[in-house]
Amino acid sequence: MRKLLCLLAATALFVTGCAGAGSFGNGGRTLVIAIDSNPQMKDAISLSSEFEKANPGVHLKFVSLPENEARAKITASTATQGGEFDVVMISNYEAPQWAANGWLENLEPHMKATPGYDENDFIPSIRQSLSYENQMYAVPFYGESSFVVYRKDLFANAGITMPAHPTWQQIADYAAKLDDKNAGVAGICLRGKPGWGESLAPFTTVANTFGAQWFDKDWNAKLTSPEFTQAANFYVNLVRDHGEVGASSAGFSECGTRYAQGQAAMWYDATSMTGTTEDPTSSKVVGKNGYAPAPVEKTQASGWLYTWALGIPKVAKDSGDAWKFMAWMTDKAYAKKVGETYGWNRVPPGTRQSTYEIPQYRDAAKAYAQPTLDGIADANQQKAMVSPVPYPGLQFVGIPEFQDLGTRVSQQLSAAIAGQTSVADALAQSQKYAATVGKSYQEVQG
Length: 446
Hints:
This is Sugar ABC transporter substrate-binding protein. This protein is an alpha+beta fold.
């Protein structure tokens, strides 16, 4: 049932992919690689000529798209076995589901046949999140949890000390105090952009720690519960009152730019943000930042667990060359290459334990390395949720239908942030969407 639903959703999302994956061009073979257009991937593209030099006859063609577009295109191609791509960038949301559906190549044989690759060097929780039946079907490019970055200078000027473990109410109070519209500085930046992987990522962690559930253990939708309602009102009011201008269309990239330009006192988002906040070539706030754990209300922790990873579609024409590229981009040497070329703050974080043993990286990342590792270690349902749920995932609901359901709910949340609807009406409509999904699981269980 779930496989069929995912196939139908993917087909509905289908956008014609680029032709020529696995094709032989002038002088060799071309691998087509579908990726999310984030800063770390831009570095990989710029370094990719080194892979081509080391692998004569293999040419790389990157299809780089914004997150929502990339997800739709990659899902459509993989689910329909379209064969447009040799390598796809996916996450720990897709990897276990797609592996169960038989859509991905099992990477264990490739890893074991690659000297020095050392899959046991991956951080255990990240490795497990990309596995199905204890076999890895994707390898992580970078991993993350979530935390708060804050301007230490602005906090000091306001006489505020960030607690070691802040609550969301404390964060809201600080945002109100630090909000300075005349100076163009928002109290906090939070995602409001529609997308199940955009605004719903931070919002769902807020919902979790407020005690909310998307579904209870019997698959009853809970989006109008008191806990979910409280979390939604808190999030919407905080970003409307003290968030960035144009919050309803701001995602990770937009918040990153604003914070790096000194236009926000705090930003709650992915721990991978440090590639932006600590980049001396583009950030005006390097050296002014502190990092605190994801804020909580009723739980021990509330951060998410996420990894952008690389997988090989089952229908890829040459998994051997595809794996060579993936191994190059995710092995131990790649972190050193990025650090030596672009600076150690731009090393993809949160995947290999050995990265945190590199002296230059330890020195560059001393403000955020341990908070990143602590967030990843604490990212589990037992610490981050009040009540048991029937689905995997922290910042997402790990079922195929969530791509559509989450997107619909995020649109309602964004409309509430924009003042186009009330929170109550947004949740009432969202509850209808979720109830339909929950009913399909109740019927299967029945």
